[in-house]
Amino acid sequence: MAALVEDHRRLRRENAALQVDVDAKTQHAHRLDGKLLEANQRRQDIAKRLDELITQIDQLGAQLDAQAESLGA
């Protein structure tokens, strides 16, 4: 009976240690999720800014073509 009680105590200690490990890993996973969300937001912001810059470049190219045509005519 004493061995059973000691096994129970040992298993409870192991369980508590494992729970601490699980909690730490869960917190780490939440931090990584937060970083992933931030990175995705930055990526979307950069993609939007690049689209805006490409649009501006296209507009400038069209203006230059129009000016070149008016000078050539």
Question: Would you kindly provide a written description of the structure presented here, covering whatever features stand out?
Answer:
The chain is an all-alpha fold. The protein is built from one helix and no strands. The radius of gyration is 31 Å and the shape is rod-shaped.
Task: Give the tags.
mainly alpha
Report the sheet-strand fraction: under 5%
**What can be said about the biggest beta sheet?**
none
Distance N to C terminus: 106 Å
Number of helical stretches of at least 4 residues: 1
User: pLDDT below 50 for ≥5 consecutive residues: which ranges?
Assistant: none
Radius of gyration: 31 Å
Short description:
The protein is mainly α. The protein is built from one helix and no strands. The chain has one helix at residues 2-72.
